[in-house]
Every structure is written in C-alpha cells, then in structure tokens.
Amino acid sequence: MEDAAPGMVFVATSDLAGLLRGKAFPAAEWEKRRLRGVGWTPTNVQITCFDTIAESPFGSLGDLALVPDPATRATLTAGGSLPVDLVLGDIRHLDGRPWDYCTRGAARRALAALEAACGARVLAAFEHEFQVVNQPPRAGDAFGFRGFRDAQPWAEALAAALARAGCRPDSFLKEYGPGQYEITVAPAEGLAAADQAALVRALAHDILPRFGAVPSFAPILDPASVGNGVHLHLSLVDAAGAPLTHDAADPHGLSALARHFIGGVLAHLDQILALLAPSEVSYLRLTPHRWSAAFNNLGFRDREAAVRICPVSATDPEAVARQVNFEVRALDAAASPHLALAAVVFAGAEGVARGIEPPAPTAEDLSLLAPAELAARGFRRLPQSLAEALAALDASAPVRRWFGDGFVDVYLAHKAGEMQRLAGLEWPEKCRAYRDVY
Ligand code: GLU
Ligand code: MG
After folding, report:
1. Cβ–ligand 1 contact at 127 (below 6 Å)
2. pLDDT for 291-328, tens place per residue?
3. Residue 301 Cα distances to 176, 312, 321, 403, angstroms
4. Which of 6, 63, 102, 243 is within CB 3.0–4.6 Å of 321 for a Cys-Cys bond?
5. Which regions of the chain carry the CATH code 3.30.590.10?
6. Pick among 3.40.50.720, 3.40.50.12710, 3.30.590.10, 3.40.720.10: CATH of 106-437
7. Residue 292 Cα, ligand 1 centroid: separation in angstroms?
8. What CATH architecture applies to the domain 8-99?
9. Per DSSP, what are the bridge partners of residue 62?
10. CA 208 to centroid of ligand 1, rounded, Å
C-alpha cells in the first residue's frame, strides 16, 4: 500500500562531516530502490562541512550505491508542510559489498569487533546540547521554567516527530547557556542509537525554524561562553539483553568488562579525539572548567571527566544493574554519530581484549595538578587543537588497524580541506562558520 503513496523518500548517509547528504526518489519506487539504492559518487566523501571538496584519491572516478536500510525509514511531517520519508542508507559497491568509507559501515564493524571480543553489545543514548541562535537570550533562564515554556511549542513538535520515528525522548531542558537546550533520547542498541542521533539533529533543524527558532548544534558559538556537548551514554548487554555493566562488589559499581571497555576508550582517547571532536572550534570547548573533557580521566559523578560514571536512581538490584551506565563527554555534534560511536566502540573492544584498566576514578580538578603528578597518575591533557588531534590519529597504529589506512588517510585529507577554508580567520569567525553549518 505504502508504495502507492505520494511523496518522496530521501535516502541519506551520515557523512564524514557529520551531515546528512543524499538523494530523493518517489515513494512509489521504494521496492526497487530498497534493493538498488541511489547512485553515489566516491568523491562525495570529501565534501567538507563548508561544501568545499577536499583532496580526494577517487577524483571523478567510480560509482557506488547508497542503499536505504528499511529499519530506519521514518515519515517526517512538520507544521502542514509536505511529508517526506527520511531513511538512512549504507554506501555499497555496485556488487553490494560495503564501502570502506561509509560511516555506518564503520559503526557496524566496531560493534562486531566488540561482540567478537566478548559477546557484548552496547546500548547507547546520545544527549545533545544546542542553542537557539536567532532569539535574544534572557537572563534568569538557566534550567528555567520560563525558558522551557518559551520552547514548549517546538519541543513538543520535536518530541512527537521523534516518537513517530521510533525514538523515545527521555528528557528535555533549558540548559545553562544562553538560548541553550538539551535533549536526550532513551537508549537504543548500537547502530540504531547513532541513527537516532542523526535524526535528532535533522529533525531539530527541520522543525524548530517553523516555530521561529533556529538551532545550532555547533560545539561552541562564542569562545567566551559555554560549549554544546554531545554526551554518549553507554552500557553493555549480552546477546539476550541482560546487563553486563554492573558489579555491586566494585567500589564504583562497574563490572570488569565495563572497566576494561572504559580503559580502552581512555587509553586511546587522544588518538580517536579527531573523530569525536572533529572541528577546529571543538578544542575551545575541550578546556578545563567547561564541564566537558580536558584529560583522559574517568570521573565518578564528575562532569569534568572524559568518561563519567553516571548516578543511578533505582534501588532494587536488578534495576540498578540495568541502569548503570557511563558517558563519554568528549564528543560534539560536528562528529558523525556513527563515526564517533565506531571510534569509542573500537577503543572499548581493544580495552576488553587487552584487559586495560582505566586510571582510578577522579572527583577533583585535574587542571590544578602539576604535570609530573598528572603523569604519575596516568593522566594526559587531551590534544588542544584539531591539528594536534589529527596528528595523534595519523600516528595511531590501533586506529589504522580498526578503520583501515585508506579511511584514515581520506579522513586526514578531508579535515585538511576543512581547515583550509578557515585559514586566517579569528576564533569568533570560525565559531560563526561552524554555527551556520551545524
Ligand atoms: N555544556 C557542557 C559540554 O560542553 C556540558 C554541561 C553538562 O554537564 O550538561 O559538554
Ligand atoms: Mg547538559
């Protein structure tokens, strides 16, 4: 029946720039396109967030297919406008083999590596902060009821659209910063969680302007103000869905499996950071006292930690075991959620395979410690610029093993193209450039 429906289906890839790009086809063609997809060009992978084309090893050559994944098909309607079905796709060779540079493919490979290492799967929830950029912020609105009420019309429309698309909104609030809001959707299994994160951003941009509010998820809008973080909440489950993150005997409630996963993330965090916080201005956010992440530390309920053990509200042991989760706080929305998830899960799987212990959890201001003490306790300042993070990625044998040399080299060229576009700009101008994209 639905194939006879009018309207269009837009099949999208969440690309290296963390943006959705793709092509539309008539809904009546679904059965054909579901298998065949739409044509895609290898060099599209080098379209930067500023729509310049970075150096590409593919040039004008080659043909690929962007093939929709029916599980992600969602009908978007907002404010009486024409409906459209948005569906995420995988980039494949014409013979159906996955293409190495597809972000969804990378996430799939990472999740498979984790499962192969220990049988675990991840449940993930992306918590997004963003700011409304076209309305003057008001004082007194941090976490405010008034700020919430200002947003209620678009927040309800967004929540309803997310629910229709199969996401369960978990919480919504007027965040601390000027015009800043936060939305969290309930946990979903690995790949679906990344798909939903892409949808949250797309739907917010689709819906809010219809209510007169223009959102930006850019990592930071003003070098002197707060950042917009993406916090990736994770827990581990077995194939039957039973929780694997908790151990009541551990002082911080973590199972050995979860500790090793976190150990792997923290041991490789400097090397994967360019995939998690991939814009130049991301590094204005990743500084001490912004409640983001500046060191490779595990925090016990500490919001300045790269990975934070989150509190649980449940009391009965079974519910506690299900609720225990930790969040990776070094992400932002310039990152493809699929690539960020892939990087974190590859690093976590490596930690599990090698039994890497994280440094002891902190609940203190690490920026006050002398370098020698930091080093003695296993802490490192994270890269302080995109260039530094890219150099760490480039030099990382593990990252090259997980993602492949081809992928890493293409990513480095992509980012070099992005940075070229920003050459000579002052920080406020760089912030504005990213503000308008994300
Ligand atoms: N805005 C902070 C960030 O950039 C997070 C604040 C919070 O703890 O919610 O990550
Ligand atoms: Mg927040």
Report:
1. no
2. 999 999 999 878 889 999 998 888 898 899 999 999 99
3. 18, 10, 17, 32
4. 243
5. 106-437
6. 3.30.590.10
7. 5
8. Roll (3.10)
9. none
10. 22
